[in-house]
Amino acid sequence: MPERDDRRQFHHVRALMAGTREGMIAVAPDRTVRMINEPAAAMFEVTRNGCVGSSLDCLATPQLSAALDAAFADRVPVVMDCERNGRDYTCTVTPYEDGKAWGAIVTISDNSEILAVRRRSEAILTSTSDGIIIFDPNDRITFVNPAAERMLGRGIETLVGLVTDTWEVFGLSPDPEGTVRETGSQVREVRIQEPESRIVDVHVDPIVDDRQVYLGSVTTIRDVTVEREAMQMKNEFVSTVSHELRTPLTSIKGYIDLILDGEAGEINEIQQEFLSIVKENSDRLVDLINDMLDISRIESGRIVLKVQPLDIAERIAGAVNTFRAVLDQHGRDIKLDVSDNLPLAAGDPDRVGQVLINFISNAIKYSPEGGDIGVHASLEGKLVRVAISDEGIGIAAEDQARLFTKFYRVDSSLTREIGGTGLGLSICKSIIELLGGQVGVESEEGSGSTFWFTLPLASEKHVRTPALEGPLGSPGGRILVIDDSEDVANLIATYLSRRGYEVVKAFNADEAWEYAIELEPRVITLDVMVGEGAGFNLLRNLKADPRTADIPVVVLSIICDQGRSERCGATDYLEKPIDKKRLMSVIDSLVGSLDSPVVLVTDDDKNIVDLLSRTLKKRGYAVMAAYDGREAMAAIERTRPDAILLDLRMPVMDGYDVLEALKADPKTADIPVVIMSAYQIDQERANILSLASQLVGKPFDAEELVTHVESVMSESEQS
Ligand code: ADP
Q1: Nearest alpha carbon, ligand 1 atom 7
Q2: Structural domain of 489
Q3: Residue 172 neighbours by CB distance under 10 Å
Q4: Is residue 462 in some structural domain?
Q5: Helices 486-498/225-260 angle, 10° precision
Q6: CB-hemisphere CA count at 13 Å for 493?
């Protein structure tokens, strides 16, 4: 009976072996093949009959023989890959106990197809010139291609197996929003220093299969050094050309202005008319160059935005004012509709002004038949929204989408006639987006357009640093003008000497240094490009030498380097071509403030600040104006005032807090403070007020208040 059972089992096993697609071989303890199925025989190209009873070595596959030895020796299954006739097999040799001795079962599977697919995908990943890193769902690196190894300067062996985040591999902090699994794709531009300095675009994308199962992530690293360098070269080219154009234009514009102002003697009507045309066109050229420079700054990321709280109503009024003359000429007007009590927005006042002027100028330009122009400002959620509408030619829907791209102009006889660069709106969009807002247009062809933009509200972290303004009255004293262009130096000198200043000119850094030491000018104007960039060194040296450190330096420059100028110690910064009025007011207030006592006026009511500033300046004081406590603290940090006029109730940081902070700091504790308040005193904090020198109730008489300031100042001088 047991024999019959054995036989039956043997048949079962044979049937099993015959029925499977896997190769199977049963090996006896003496290494002879006991059974081999058809797939196995085919794989090793032997006949089953020729093989059974022979040693396993008859398969002529040394790795298999070795695996069998290992399995017998260690009595554990051994897995090995082998290749026969270009096909790939995986063999598993599993030992089993056969009576007292050990036999083995060999199973062989043909992986050729799967491996071919895998090889192909790996070959593709290996051959691409983009670097590729693959992570499994547990953030473990499973694959790194040679391009990635090369770019990172790290061997595959130092990367595969690491549990990490792509940004960490680049030495950066992870995305604050979360992992790729949480956030979806992430992109950054990364500068690699080692082994070679490169700029790369790094994309990290989640890998999700068709059943939405997350399989990990893939990081693609693309070398964009050449593109970025080309872009930078283009930007540098534009910027150099524009600068080269600006220097002669500064002279052209300046001298025409002088002639038109009658500074070169009387001119007749025709001369006046012709020169006006020259002036108009040189202004257009300046605008164009400014636009090109703006674009190149924006594209190269060199634009510097001074974000501070801004009163949008004030900006709108300022912008509308610049069009007053043009509007009056055509008997047109702009209707303002600005909500009361709009909160302060956050923005760069000059740049927001630039956007407003651009939108308003377009509204005028593109409504040649007249019609109403309106400026509307309101609060929308946490944004200030400004809309400029006209009843002009309007814009077709298909053009609207492309309007904010560079150089785009709607093609029509009118736009051709009006002329323009098509750069304005693209600059506006970039500026507003950099400030955290948005721009847009609503329009219908033939019935007018509304261009709008939004700005975020000012938060506590935006602090305006109030400027120092000198007293009213006649300026005078010696000014050193440093500029390597003789024409420009002469122009500035003409402006200044007509205003009563004595001017000394220096055309290079050495000369400038000598004059600064010897002649002790009150103010210096410096073109930082003097002597091919020696200007910044000169500025630093002037600020480092005790003999010249206190002389205020106004940087005049054709390049946008306000940040650098301020870091080097410049007191103020003006861009070329020089705006005569601005230059004069900067110089006047600097000269005026030099010997005058400085008073800081702090009140959130702009009218009160203006009134007090004017009264103080008339009496010969230099004034700084702050509209809340934080601005006051920022002002004091920059210039120590001789007295402070302080309102108690203010937004952001109130008068009590300012007073307390001042008295707690030994550097500011002795500055006399005059409190002005219309409100009831906060009894709980009344003790703080004892720190003030004087308390004045509102309403007050400005002149009277100034006498209070004078008395506290003389008291503090005596003590
Ligand atoms: P420019 O005015 O110098 O051409 P902009 O970038 O300011 O450049 O404007 C781009 C184009 O958008 C203009 O050429 C004009 O076709 C269109 N556009 C701008 N503002 C208006 C408007 N208020 N009404 C109609 N079309 C406008």
Answers
A1: 424
A2: 469-593
A3: 13
A4: no
A5: 40
A6: 16
Tell me if 64 is assigned to some domain. yes
**Substitution site in 298, 399, 425 for ligand 1 pocket (most atoms within 8 Å of beta carbon):** 425
Find the DSSP H helices in 205-306: 225-260, 269-300
In 528-642 the beta strands, taken as DSSP E runs, fall at: 553-557, 572-575, 598-602, 622-626
- Using CB atoms within 10 Å of the CB of residue 377, give its burial: 0 to 12 exposed, 13 to 18 middle, 19+ buried: buried
Residues 378 and 287 in one domain: no
At 680, phi and psi to the nearest 5? -65, 145
- Answer yes or no: is the C-beta of 144 below 6 A from any ligand 1 atom: no
List, in order, residues 6 or more apart from 485 with CB less than 8 Å away. Answer: 247, 250, 251, 527
Question: Could you report the per-residue pLDDT of 451-463, keeping only the tens digit for each?
Answer: 999 999 987 667 7
CATH number of the domain that residue 444 is part of: 3.30.565.10
> Are 619 and 571 part of one and the same domain?
no
Judge whether 204 and 164 are in contact, CB under 8 Å. Answer: no
Centre of ligand 1 from the C-alpha of residue 422, in Å? 7
Same domain, 9 and 45: yes
- Confidence label for 274 from pLDDT (cuts 50, 70 and 90): very high
How many domains are there within the chain?
A: 6
Query: For ligand 1, is residue 448 a contact (CB within 6 Å)?
Result: no
**Alpha carbon distance 534, 542 (integer Å):** 12
Does ligand 1 come within 6 angstroms of the Cβ of 388? Answer: no
What's the predicted TM-score (pTM) here?
0.60
Atom of ligand 1 nearest to the CA of 408: 10
- Looking at the fold, whether 271 and 349 belong to one and the same domain comes out as no
For residue range 370-391, list pLDDT tens digits in order: 888 999 999 998 899 999 999 9
Q: Is residue 463 part of a domain?
A: no
Give, for ligand 1, the residue of 409, 414, 429, 430 to mutate: max count of ligand atoms closer than 8 Å to Cβ: 409
Question: What CATH number has the domain bearing residue 272?
Answer: 1.10.287.130
- Cα separation of 64 and 265, whole Å? 109
Predicted confidence (pLDDT) per residue in 76-121, tens digit: 999 998 888 888 889 999 999 877 888 999 999 988 888 889 889 8
Q: How far is the CA of 711 from the centre of ligand 1 (A)?
A: 58
